[in-house]
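Job type: complex structure
Entries:
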Amino acid sequence: MSTASVDISYDLIDGIYDVLYGNVIYELETIPVYKSVPKTPASVYVLIGEVLGSEDGTKDGFLYFGTVQVIVVDESAHCADRKQSQGILGVVRGLLKATKPVTFTCGSRTLVVFSHESLVPVTEYADNSVIRNRLIDIYNYVLE
Amino acid sequence: MAKINGTLMCIISGSDKLLHIDNCTLNVNVNLPDASTKESSGWAEHINGQRDWEITFDGKYDETGTGITPDEILAAIIARSADTAMKFTTDGATGAAGWTGNGTYRNLSLAANMETPATFSGSIKGNGALAAIA
């Protein structure tokens, strides 16, 4: 455990990115993974979203816990079909949680717990009839 | 009024601090045997009997660190180790303030719930007097 309080957000984002980048392959296509959305994003991508959290630990060291979002965004269709985005989400989950107790490397930090909490599906309709499907997967983390 | 941050309060066993603790409690009791008689006018009366004390603690399980780890406490219980001088102190560095007495590790529990950090809890039973650290 760290003896000084720090911000672990980017360590966690980097850790998730390293697991997913280049490995999210759906129907023979590699899906881009972003830490932040570029000006001209792909029509289908995975975005590592917000890290929310607090600190815990012991009398001697800090432990950090909270939630992180991993979002599948699909703007490729003109209908609200989620089949593709759900398929991609399945690939993402398999990479992040290949087995029940698995955790991954987050820089110099130890990821103690990484578990799926909930899924929030969002469908947005724009005036130009473009539809954006967002599947927001929320994971719990405990990091030291 | 001066308040004390509970983070500062810790347990020292011999010269080593108990590690990875997030909560510790000192309990001090005195037994109060009933001394009521027919002359007590219907009021319960007692005398001051035996005193005892105990320290309980819990924390996040970790095998590492320089000090007393949960594994070392477990080993001490299994070995039925002799008492050590315990301090319940606000001064983790020197143990210069608080309370002290000889104590024995009485129990240790390790808990491992799914998808949460493993925890431990235990207690130290006082063996003899508890005294303020001068």
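Summary: The domain at 9-143 of chain A is CATH 3.30.2000.30 (STM4215-like). Chain A has a mean pLDDT of 91.
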